[in-house]
TrEMBL record:
It is a multi-pass membrane protein. It is found in: Cell membrane; Membrane. It comes from the Bacteria. The chain crosses the membrane at residues 6-35, 77-100, 112-132, 180-199, 205-230. This is ATP synthase subunit a. Belongs to the ATPase A chain family. HAMAP family: ATP_synth_a_bact. Key component of the proton channel; it plays a direct role in the translocation of protons across the membrane. One of its GO terms (biological process) is proton motive force-driven plasma membrane ATP synthesis. InterPro entries: ATP_syn_F0_a_bact/chloroplast, ATP_synth_F0_asu, ATP_synth_F0_asu_AS, F0_ATP_A_sf.
Amino acid sequence: MEETLVINVLGLSIGVNTLISLVATVLLVWVFCMVSTKNMSVDKPGKAQLMLEWVYDFVRGLVGGAITDSKVQMYNLLGMTLLLFVFIANMVGLGFILTIKDYSMWKSPTGDPIVCLALALIMIIMSHYLGVDKLGFKQYIKSSYMQPVSFMLPINIIEEFTNTLTLALRLYGNIFAGEVLLGLIASLGGSFFPVTWVIGIPLQMVWQGFSLFIGSIQAYIFVTLTMVYMSHKVETEH
């Protein structure tokens, strides 16, 4: 288990490596969006603009398959922001390892359970807010918790907790496991230098590629499930 400096925020222990990479992730998303939308053109779009438009079209397909609300544009923007954030957060820990005085100073933010749980909670709470805002409190409770029959209320409440946990833990488990294995492979490569480099470097390259694939899939799954959960709150028919 990696060691890092820890700070306490509102009773929660947060690693400095997670905090640094979390800030870096937000900045990377912001820079990508700023660069992509600078000097936008209909006739001669740049590569960055084309990439952003591709991401938007991709997310629009995900959202359209789950939500038919008249304000679907809002969900498209939310889904695109979420996809960019989760994808970059999954990737930033793959490039390199930063250690200062035996303390880890860099990792994927989504390799921390607190970040994943906070992200899942934000999305679930937002889905409740949007549901109440659209349907009204009484109709929202009826359509979300009293269907198909009223005695399903306890089961539907439990489902809310399980949705939050599974949304967070699925993302955390995959990213955390990938980074642990990358660390083990790096240790193997440096254990009996230069002999183990023959094994360690190819394994590192293969696992980096596999982790890139897993990180992309997990970002896709997170956004897809979030939109499905939201559709259950804002749509009166499931």
